[in-house]
Specification:
Blueprint (H helix, E strand, L loop, with lengths): L4 H16 L6 E6 L3 E4 L3 H9 L6 H14 L4 H12 L4 E13 L2 E11 L5 E6 L9
Antiparallel strand pairs: 1-3, 2-3, 3-4, 4-5
Helix pairs in contact: 3-4
Length: 137
């Protein structure tokens, strides 16, 4: 992972929260998790996995998609789009968990957010996980 990506992601997450809350006066960042590289899965990933084909082997994946498209023309458009996204690394995103404290009318709160960022550190999804019981990572 590029070394300059973590600070950019941290800054993007903090800016997003500050602007969402109206730039509060008593706001303090507590921690940022390490940036984790992830990849969205598609229906084609499942089909390739079932057929025993690695998504990194583009030639075999293309042959499989051609064969499947002939058998099932109803999913041909989705397969072609998924194959393009896999080959051009369009399904990559980064995961970041950001914790901060805020004082709202004398009431101090500790809040955690889970962010999904694209490769340019733009926020794709932000979710409050403060009281979440599910595993976040």
């Amino acid at each position: 992972m590029r070394s300059g990506l973590q600070p950019r992601a941290n800054e993007a997450a903090e800016h997003y929260i500050r602007s969402m809350l109206g730039n509060p006066k008593y706001f303090k960042s507590v921690s940022f998790s390490a940036l984790q590289k992830r990849r969205y899965t598609t229906a084609l990933d499942s089909s390739l996995n079932y057929a025993g084909i690695d998504t990194g082997n583009h030639r075999k994946a293309e042959k499989y998609v051609d064969s499947e498209n002939n058998q099932r023309p109803d999913i041909a458009v989705n397969n072609v789009q998924d194959l393009y996204n896999i080959e051009h690394d369009k399904l990559t995103y980064y995961l970041l968990v950001y914790s901060f404290r805020i004082d709202s009318n004398g009431y101090k709160k500790f809040v955690k957010y889970r962010f999904e960022l694209d490769t340019a550190c733009r926020i794709l999804n932000a979710r409050d996980i403060t009281n979440s019981r599910t595993r976040t990572q």
